[in-house]
Structures are given as structure tokens and as C-alpha cells.
């Protein structure tokens, strides 16, 4: 009961502090905002720990964060192996292939209005479909190893990136294109100096959506068959053995990888599209 | 209408590629069989055979169509072989989860807009959580809920709700903040209470944003349900159909389940879009 009580007291104190911070002058500063968000995260962890310990919840149902952290630290080599197998080999290679293919396709169909009108509705339609479902088929075709996961990821990321890239290539206005024509720029020159840079904000939007999809695709595809390593494999086998602390450790890896990947993309985007109003406003 | 012909051409091209792929991928098996029996095959024989194998690597479109027709129309709805039955299982869990996720998301968004503390503490996590492959926890949720005695529709609905929750929160917060400062000032001039501002200005103004997120989240809810049906033990639903098909090498069954899922997703998004048109139309916001 001590645990539960302590957690509740911490909750009350943190809420009070958060409200004070949020309504005070500190909310205007970056550090103040970060502190409020961090407090919320801490409250979740403390409440979780307190409730699990205080009510003696079985670790088979919900392990406390401390046990997960211990497991995380203890199983680092396994987790790293799974990370390499699923994220680096499966998700990342598939993401790179799929996004490159989508960008090239977008540039190719951009020249033909007919193809654009035909492919865009189809692409939009495909982007909304539960494409993870093709995982069992691709696992059958490409075998159990990472190649099949990469294939799933390629198919999953292709359409969102394609749709965004086509929209991006159409983002230049008449005046800018006329200027290019005045300079008698060739198609390639106009593409390289005007339209590709103008498409970048749209492209990055697609790439960010694709980064999350890539992780999902790579992990879910492993539920349909994988070698004896990989995050999806580990999650499904440890769930079967009720080793939930290991499952949560894998989820932490997935969360870290997902937000790290996203953050990296946001960083590159800020570098490459520094001229865009959305980036300038942040200062 | 100017989209119809290009779309048809693209779909026809895709079907052609599919047929060519079926011939190419299935011919290995045909040739292998023929070589074992010492038969000589003409090109026409090969093509014919690749179109009607029992367990092709890539079923031809008409095989998938036939299977789809057989399991949707040709089977009693109550039968376990009927895709309508499996689709209904998936659809009901999706609908329940979508309702839970949307309701919770709208409530949280209302809280975020009205409380600065909630805004600063919850919003960054809600945005960050979208970068995390949440779907990975699906099998765990199923097993954990099963171990405390909750089985059937609810665990899948929880996953579906969880997935549809965050798009709604993010879109709804944007929408509730959409009114111009001028409009907010007008409300203030009329001495409107916070509740009145919410019901008469913020909520109506948020509708276009809400529907945009609903279209994303209904598709996400369906994906969540299907993945929730994957863990061993599930015997019903489109996800279970996919899994059993992959265990027994029933490629035609996998493709049929996949198309059923695609049709279901398209129908759900279309329904939301229809409601959007009606609601926004009656509110005078139709674009």
C-alpha cells in the first residue's frame, strides 16, 4: 500500500507543479514546456510502478517499469541483434528502396497528365488499404529472412510517398515556371533547380509517414514467419512464454527507433528546407 | 468524370502485369511437373496450367475473383467458410474500437484545448506517439487481456481504438483551435461562457478537421483489428483467414481475404466521406 500511496502523492504533487508551470511565466520558455511534458511522462511511470507494486499485479499481466528497465539493460546483446535484423536490415533497406522507387515513379509520371490522373486516385486508394495484409504472401515469395520484410516495407511506403511527391512536383506556381522558361531552362534544369526543391516539404511529409509505416511493416511481417531473431519474432515468442518484460523491452526499442528515425528526418528536413515558412517561423 | 478513363487504363495495366506475373511465377511448378512426367509442353499448355493451379505462387485475378464470389455469395453467411462471416467479425470489432477511440480522442482534445496544463503535458506525447510502431504491442494486448479473462471482440477493439485515438486527438485539437481571433472576440463581446464558446463556435468549426482525421483513423482501426486477429488462437476474422491461409499455403484464400479487407477499408472510408459530405453540406461548409 505504501507504494500506491507514494505514487498517488507524487501524482498530486506533479499535477500541482504542472498546473503552476503551465499557467505561470515559465510556459513561455522552451525549458518550461519541456519540464511540463517531462513531468507528465514521469507521472505515468511512477503511477505505473506504484499501481503494479501496490496492488501486487502479476508480472505476467503488467511488469513494472523498473523490471522492464532491468531486463532492457540485461538483454542488450539480444535487443541489438533484433534491432539490426528488423530495423536496419528489414525496415531501413525497404524504406530506402520503396521511397526511391516512389520518387522516381512520381518524376516519371509527372510528365504525363494522363498517367497522373489515372495513378493518383489508385495511389490514394492503395494508401488507405490494410497493406500489411500482403505480409504472408511476400513471406512466401521471398523466404523467412529480412528480404521478405524489406519487400513488405517497399509496398507499404510506396503509395504514401508517391502521392506526396506528385503533389510536391505540382507545387510550383505559374510565375516560377514562366521564369524558368524565360531563362530557357531545359526540363532537367527546371526539375533540378526549381521543382525538386519546391517538392521537398511534401516529400519529407511522405518520408515521415513512411518511416512509421516501415517499422510497422517490418515488425508485423515477422509475425508470419522469421528466422529466430528480430523484434516481431521476439515479441510473438515472448508473448507465448509470458515473458512480458522482454516484450516491453522490445517495445521500448521500437519506440526509440521510431522516434529516433523520425527525429533524424525532421533534422534533415530543417537543413534542406530552411527556406520554407514552416521552418523559418520556428527561428 | 475526366478521371474515369485514365483510372480504368491504369487498372487494366495492373491486371495485365498481374496476369503476366502469374504466368511467370507459376510456370516453374508447371515445368517441374512436366519434366517429372517426361511430358513436352507447348507455350499454350504452360499458360493454361498457370491459370488454374490449386496452390499457385501468385493466383491469377480470375481465381481470386472466383474464390471471393464463392466465399461471399456462394456460401451461407453463418458458415465458417463464408468471408461475409469473417468480415463481419472484423467489422464489428473495428466499429466498436473506432467508436471508443473517436470518443476518447474527442474528449481528450476538448480537455487539451481548455486546460493549458493538459496541453503542455499531453500534447507532446500524443504527437510523439505517432512516430512509434504501436501495432507491435497488438499480440501482447490480446494475450494479456485473454489471461485476465477478456476475450472475443473487446481485445481487438482496444487495439483498433488505440490506433484510431491519436489521429483524432491531433486533428480535433487543430480543429477546436481553428476559429479566428475575430470570432473568439465576437463570442467574448456577447459574454459567452466557455461552454457556449465550445458548443456554438469551436465544435462546429472543428468539423472539417475532425472528418479528415476520421478517414485516417477508420482505416487505422481496421488495420489494428486485422493485426489483432493474427496471434495464434484467433479462428475468426479476416486476419485469422490471412494467417491460416499462410500456414496451409492456401494462396487463393489469402488473396481473397486481402481483397475482402481492401473492399471493407474502402467502404468504411467511403461511408465516413459520405457522412462528411452530408454534415458539412448541412452546415454550409461544403467545399
What is the CATH architecture term of the largest domain in chain A? Orthogonal Bundle
Topology-level CATH name of the largest domain in chain B = MetI-like fold
Please tell me the overall pLDDT of chain B: 84
Which strand-content bin applies to the residues of chain B?
A: under 5%
What count of helical segments of chain B does DSSP give? 11
How many strands, which pairing sense, and closed or not: the largest β-sheet of chain B? none
- Element order of chain A: H for helix, E for strand: HHHHHHHHHHHH
What this model shows, in words?
The complex is a heterodimer of chains A (283) and B (287). Chain A is an all-alpha fold and 283 residues long. Chain A has twelve helices and no strands. Chain A has two domains: 2-57; 75-282, MetI-like (MetI-like fold, Orthogonal Bundle). In chain B, α3 crosses α11 (251-282) and α4 (83-114) packs parallel to α7. Chain B folds into two domains: 4-58, no CATH class; 83-282, MetI-like fold (Orthogonal Bundle). Chains A and B meet through α1, α2, α5, α6 and α9 of A and α1, α5, α6, α9 and α10 of B.
Give a quick rundown of the structure.
Chain A has 283 residues and is mostly helical. Chain A has helices at 2-23, 30-54, 65-74, 76-110, 113-127, 135-142, 146-169, 174-182, 187-222, 231-240, 244-272, 277-280. The two termini of chain B are 18 Å apart.
Keywords:
heterodimer, A: 283 residues, MetI-like fold, B: 287 residues, mainly alpha, 77% helix, 0% strand, elongated
